[in-house]
Amino acid sequence: MSGNYRNPQTYHWLQPGEMLDGLGMAETTPGPLIMVTQFVGFMGAFRAPGSLDPLLAATLGGLLTTWVTFTPCFLWIFLGAPFVEALRSNRALSAALATITAAVVGVILNLAVWFGLHVLFGELIEVSGFGMSVDVPVLSSVNVASLVLTLGALIAVFRFKVGMLPVLAACSGAGLLSGLVSGTL
After folding, report:
1. Is residue 2 in some structural domain?
2. Whole-number Cα distances in Å, 104 to 13, 110, 116, 158, 178
3. Which residues are within 8 A (CB) of 34 and not within 5 positions of it... i.e. 6 or more apart?
């Protein structure tokens, strides 16, 4: 990586709990989930404002992050839309797009595992080997309330075929009640 690469874990832009807060905010708004990147841009600029006021830097960071996230997508859609039908018949391009789709699914799975580990366990240990590293949970740091809610949601959805909205409502209420009882809210 280049010397200008800034790893959020190295520079402490966000803690895992704050990333979960950003995901929670993105999930509660009627917009695209990728808006969590705006939160990351805001927090990163707030924590490293340079010579600017932290709130001004954070606002500019959030706006810039949103701009660079969505502008290329819209340009691609508006400029490329007339050519999409013609490109569908191209076998090499279809194979490339299938590969990109597989990579996106892998990224989503990686993100789901990351969030799951940070929700269910208070402590993770990084284990490195063979040129890669994996976060391994410390089993004694399990968040029992989160584990019970997760298992309950899985059973409700997969065993009893309960719909998403009732499961979300029940888990939200149970999580709120658990936080109030434990004093963490």
Report:
1. no
2. 24, 10, 18, 25, 34
3. 26, 69
Q: CA dihedral defined by 176, 178, 179, 180, rounded to 10 degrees?
A: 90
How many other β-carbons are positioned within 10 Å of the β-carbon of residue 94?
A: 12
**Cα dihedral across residues 137, 103, 43, 34: positive or negative:** negative
Q: Using CA atoms, how far apart are residues 24 and 6, in angstroms rounded to an integer? A: 24
Helix (H, G, I), strand (E, B) or coil at 126: strand
What is the domain count for the chain?
2
Which residues touch 42 (CB under 8 Å, ≥6 apart)? 58, 59, 61, 62, 65
**Greater pLDDT, 65 or 78:** 65
Contact 145, 182 (CB under 8 A): yes
Q: What is the SS3 assignment for 127?
A: strand
Amino acid at 80: G
pTM score: 0.62
Q: What are 12-30's pLDDT values in tens digits?
A: 778 888 888 888 888 777 7
Q: How many CB atoms lie within 10 A of CB 93?
A: 11
Please state, in angstroms and rounded to a whole number, the distance separating the CA atoms of residues 157 and 160.
6
Q: Are residues 71 and 149 in the same domain?
A: no
Q: Which long-range contacts (CB under 8 A, 24 or more apart) does 106-110 make?
A: none
Domain of residue 161 covers 143-185
